Amino acid sequence: MSEATRSGRDWHSAIDKLRGSEIESIFLRLAVLFVVGLFLTIATDTFLTQTNLVNLLRQASLMFLLAAGLTLVLIVGGIDLSVGANLALSACLTAGVYKATNSVPLAIATGLATGAAIGFVNSLLVAFLKLPPFLATFATLWVCQGLAFFYMSGSVIYGFPPEMRALGSGFWLGIPVPVILMTIILIFLTVFLRRSTIGHELYAIGSNATAARLSGIPVRRRLILVYVLSGLTAGFAGIVYLARVNSADAGVGEPLLLPVIAVVLIGGASLYGGRGSAIGTLSGALILTAVLNGMNLLAIDSNLQPMAAGLVVLLALALEAVSKKHQRKK
Amino acid sequence: MMTFKNSIRTCAVLALSQFLALPLAAQEIAVFTKNQVDPFFNDIRVGAEMAAAAKGWSTVQYVPTKPNNLTEQISQLEDASLRNPDAILFVPIDPDALAPVVERVANAGIPIVNVADRAASGSYLTFVGFDDVVLGEVAAKALADRLGGEGRVVIIEGVKGSKVNEDRVNGFRSGLSAFPSIEVITSQPANFQRLQALQVMENLIQSTPDIDGVLASIDAMALGALEAIEAAGIEAQVVGVDGISEAVEAVRDGRMAATAEFSGFKMSCLAIEAVDRAANGLDVPAEILLSGSLITAENAGDFLVPLEEQTCPDWDAVVN
Predict the structure, then answer these.
(1) What's the CATH fold of domain B2-124?
(2) Helix boundaries (H) for B25-129
(3) Distance between CA atoms of B266 and B310, rounded to whole angstroms?
(4) B260-313 pLDDT, tens per residue?
(5) Where exactly does CATH 3.40.50.2300 map onto chain B?
(6) Which of A155, A156, A304 to probe the B interface (max B CBs under 10 A)?
(7) Domain B132-261, CATH 3.30.70.2750 — does that match?
(8) Cβ within 8 Å, pair A247-B188
(9) CATH architecture for segment(s) A21-324
(10) Chain B residues touching residue A250 (CB < 8 angstroms)
(11) ipTM for the complex?
(12) How many other C-beta atoms can be found within 10 angstroms of the C-beta atom of residue B146?
């Protein structure tokens, strides 16, 4: 008993230490965002306008929704490659159920259930079969992709009612609905990770799974929780996607996978686990979106755009590496 | 030595096919498309199946599990040729990279029809498709006419380096060059993605408030741009290329100005016809080019016919 309490105290203090560096790294990200924003404000006369900022937030919100659950998975030291395919399958089934029943609540429930179910399968593979998360979720990526292909058989489902489209393209008190959803999830996740015991346990698992288990953390149950949440947010992102573009096809998820992983990593999460935060992921989404937005505003040659985006991502990661080196020297 | 190896391989394949009871139908056409995602390729598959059935051929479909995956299509072509089909309808993911495999299969005596994405060279029986540059010009002219020959236009491009995209965008530019009062403000990429086109358009509306027209190299991107335009409440005319049903409906309803027809159904229909004619010793020209129709509000209804009720274009009318 005393053994468990002591190691318990150990990981609590470890998290306190981690938090110090975490806060520094969040400042760093906000600084990168600020520099990108400052540059675009000087270079264009349209970046710092209310409509463009609303635009930017709305564009970033879909990325954030998809990345929110993935952040938790990275914190426990896992990875979820199935989020893009999950988004596609959830969007397709939501669309299909709506067309079959004309019921918006039923359609949305289908999308959320699909997302969570895929997450649950991932969690069983990772927590019980002990498959490496990379391989397990790579396999479910294909299964979901295949199911979506089979279900849609090359078709596109389009045309949804205003009450459904409101989730992606509506406004509430002048704020785009996806931005409101993003804010709610941001607050919820931040409180969850910073204030709840379970949140702290996730960092402990990611830092050292064995130590976490020995100190009495129910690792399996926590893994189930994070993979289900990752699936759920991906499914939810699928619904918001559908509501925003007013159509669904089987191919919508694949192009989102690498950008969403980039968003979480730019946001300060680590592929080795134990790091990451909701606000960090938000700043990652904002940095990436601001770069794409800025390139359109500046009308940069379309041949140069991928390279420019890559360089900014590199810059963000390089800054992080330099600051870590600096911290170690201290 | 080579023939010995080949005959062993043939024996092995025959033995294997006997053992597995593979349906080595006497008249089988293998149909290769690029992905399961784009409805356009579904049109090609359905068109091929219907035309083949009408002429007493059977079809086997090959589609990469990962959309537009070149290496997967290469292995699929190699695998399919072992079944020794009577002909192949081939939409190449990358015509240049696939040339050597196509060469090998053609040398084995299997006629291959190049469909939709044109290969610069290779031992194809014939090419069936549309000229993408012409489609781009048709779309550009439709937009220019709608704008009365003057205005500010943006181009939404697909994946950089894709031949379809480059040809259509070149077509846009050459089509617009006949209208000196039309200014192309910018040409921005949205990678053939609807969401990206929506977001790119949102951003462009910020930087250039007075956009009069939009040319998108595929309809899915035109529809994404249309969402942004309607949400922002600006008056800009949108023209796409492809003629997918959602876009045709938007044209019919007056939300989109026009789109240029790029019918997968017609292409694969004619490709099957070419295979059938070649098998019966009739002449097949080296290329069969379809002229794309412009789809406007007036004729949109004609393009909303379900696939099952569509008919093949008349061979002689197209070839001559």
Answers:
(1) Rossmann fold (3.40.50)
(2) 39-54, 70-82, 95-107
(3) 9
(4) 999 999 999 999 999 999 999 999 999 999 888 999 999 999 999 888 888 888
(5) 2-124, 132-261
(6) A156
(7) no
(8) no
(9) Orthogonal Bundle (1.10)
(10) 36-37
(11) 0.81
(12) 17
